[in-house]
Amino acid sequence: MSYTGHYTVLKHECVDSLIEKAPLDKKSYYADLTFGGGGHTFEFLYRNPLFNVRSTDQDPDALKNGNERIQKEQMGDRIKLIDTNFVHFPSMIREHSPEVFADGGFQGILLDLGVSSHHFDEAGRGFSFRFDGPLDMRMDYESDEFQTAEEIVNTYSEEELRRIFEEYGEEKNARKIAAKIVTERKEKRISTTKELENIVFHCYPKEHRYGKTNPSTRVFQALRLEVNRELEVLSNTIDQLIPLLKVGGRLAIISFHSLEDRIVKNVFRDASQKTELPVEVLTKKPILPSEQEILDNSRSRSAKLRILERVETKKDKNKYKQ
Ligand SMILES: C[S@@+](CC[C@H](N)C(=O)[O-])C[C@H]1O[C@@H](n2cnc3c(N)ncnc32)[C@H](O)[C@@H]1O
């Protein structure tokens, strides 16, 4: 499918922070594990000819579009775009790019989580209730590793459906929606985004059907997280990235909802309490998009950026206390 594009969120805040300590006279390496439309990756490459990026994405459309752009911009081997789920990055990158570790590791690693505008804007991907499309929602639609939303909606038990709508969607009508799905699918398999939207719509009380948020928003979010196992992948990846940083290197993560942000915050806090690989959390509070950015791109409104730095030794907070 052709790539419909993506508006990069917190571009300058992320890149400025990750390059702050980069040496000006020798090569630095960055990892952008969520390449998407390449907004962050190319910003690193434009900032300094000595910057190199190792990027990943699992989405075939993003990879195809990215490889075409890399060719067009003639970046040579300064950028390598790897087709993988980023959960595999820590175990494969030392062998894939030994040059990074000959230099001590990455100067910066970035995760800009979730799906891109392309996913929401392309009807055929099934992420959005704005269009009628197949209930798919897999980022990596060429792999058998992930079930589609259609498989989940038509095979999970009522209890399992309710759990994911409650846990991943914080959906108040989860019980009613799960029950209605199970009744409807006995009559006919639920296969399209509009069929599911219609079911959810009728489970909402009449006075809440036409509010600011479409009744299907939470159910679609929950299904997307379940299909791509996004929270599990995130939890299994973050602390594995820290040993890939050189001393002074930084890890930046942009999240888009409270479930993701909680994982990032907790893993950062736990990492900062360990002594064997010392890190400092640089963002006591997350960095948020400016009012102007939210006006320019309303999808940025829920973004939160947290950053940590690998340090030589921890500052001893009690050093001067009696
Ligand atoms: C929010 S977009 C990134 C946009 C990018 N920073 C830009 O400015 O163009 C997230 C991208 O990460 C990819 N992605 C999400 N989770 C992934 C994972 N576990 N492994 C690999 N890629 C992933 C998605 O396919 C999507 O293209």
From TrEMBL:
Its EC number is 2.1.1.199. HAMAP family: 16SrRNA_methyltr_H. NCBIfam families: 16S rRNA (cytosine(1402)-N(4))-methyltransferase RsmH. It catalyses: cytidine(1402) in 16S rRNA + S-adenosyl-L-methionine = N(4)-methylcytidine(1402) in 16S rRNA + S-adenosyl-L-homocysteine + H(+). S-adenosyl-L-methionine binds at residues 38-40, 57, 86, 112, 119. It is found in: Cytoplasm. Keywords: Cytoplasm, Methyltransferase, rRNA processing, S-adenosyl-L-methionine, Transferase. The gene is rsmH. This is Ribosomal RNA small subunit methyltransferase H. Specifically methylates the N4 position of cytidine in position 1402 (C1402) of 16S rRNA. GO terms for biological process: rRNA base methylation. One of its GO terms (molecular function) is rRNA (cytosine-N4-)-methyltransferase activity. InterPro entries: RsmH (IPR002903), SAM-dep_MeTrfase_MraW_recog (IPR023397), SAM-dependent_MTases_sf (IPR029063). It comes from the Bacteria. GO terms for cellular component: cytoplasm. It is an enzyme of class 2 (transferase). It holds the Pfam family Methyltransf_5. Belongs to the methyltransferase superfamily. RsmH family.
